[in-house]
Write a structure and sequence with these properties.
11% strand; five-stranded parallel sheet; 252 residues; alpha/beta; four-stranded parallel sheet
């Protein structure tokens, strides 16, 4: 995992240098794209993707499998969950047959072909405003982008990843009355305000999977935003009620 993170960092620096060279001035790593030659569809940068999410200006499509989507995805993204030859039809249903709708696709990073294949397929079916976040979910995570995990993804983590750290963002009193087995307490309000001085997270391995949950998606997202500025980068939050996660106790 550490080697993978180092490779991502090197690649990002190269991307930023490419952007700087093309524009003739220094560019931040958040403005970088892969900038491959001969692309059929334009790319968006990490900064672009963040703005699109806030403004809700595009339909974001995760070109990966349902299982990968469940394990962690960009907030607001849609997964198609159909065979490859039916994906263009599935997208048409999502946009109500408006093929001029702004679409942004992503998958598993610079070397992933899924978003490229889907982009080409959509162009062939008459879609006119297709772009890709080709840096994908690994770079999104590395640059502190928020990641949502579905309840099915949490179930899988509980079964397969004994090193994962779960953090309960409810109050200390609520945590004391019961939580997910093995979870750590970090009240969302204290975390967001800076009142929580010591995070219950590992300091010997910042690659450990960290899953946040709280009363609701907004509180869990606030926690994720705080951790986006900390060294832990394999962080996801559950966009639902804490009770749904707590109900999984005993599945570890």
């Amino acid at each position: 995992m550490t080697r993978t993170v180092s490779m991502i960092a090197v690649m990002l620096l190269g991307c930023a240098a490419t952007v700087a060279s093309a524009r003739g001035h220094a560019a931040s790593i958040y403005q970088a794209t892969l900038a491959e030659p001969g692309q059929k569809t334009a790319e968006v940068s990490t900064d672009d993707m963040r703005r699109l999410i806030v403004a809700n200006d595009a339909l974001i499509i995760d070109a990966r499998t349902r299982a990968e989507f469940n394990a962690g995805h960009i907030p607001g993204a849609h997964v198609l969950d159909v065979p490859q030859n039916e994906q263009a039809t599935a997208v048409a249903r999502l946009v109500g047959s408006d093929k001029s709708r702004s679409l942004v696709l992503y998958c598993n990073g610079p070397f992933c072909q899924a978003s490229r294949r889907l982009a080409d397929q959509l162009l062939a079916h008459g879609f006119t405003h297709v772009r890709r976040y080709q840096l994908g979910i690994p770079v999104w995570r590395a640059l502190g982008g928020p990641v949502e995990v579905e309840i099915e993804g949490i179930v899988r983590v509980l079964k397969l990843d004994r090193t994962a750290v779960f953090v309960d963002g409810r109050s200390a009193a609520e945590f004391g009355r019961g939580s997910l087995e093995g979870a750590q307490s970090a009240p969302a309000d204290e975390l967001a305000s800076g009142a929580l001085k010591k995070l219950p997270l590992p300091v010997d391995d910042f690659n450990r999977r960290v899953i946040l949950f709280a009363h609701d998606a907004a509180a869990a997202r606030r926690m994720a935003d705080v951790l986006s500025k900390r060294p832990w980068h394999n962080v996801s939050y559950f966009p639902g009620a804490a009770d749904q996660v707590i109900a999984l106790s005993g599945k570890k």
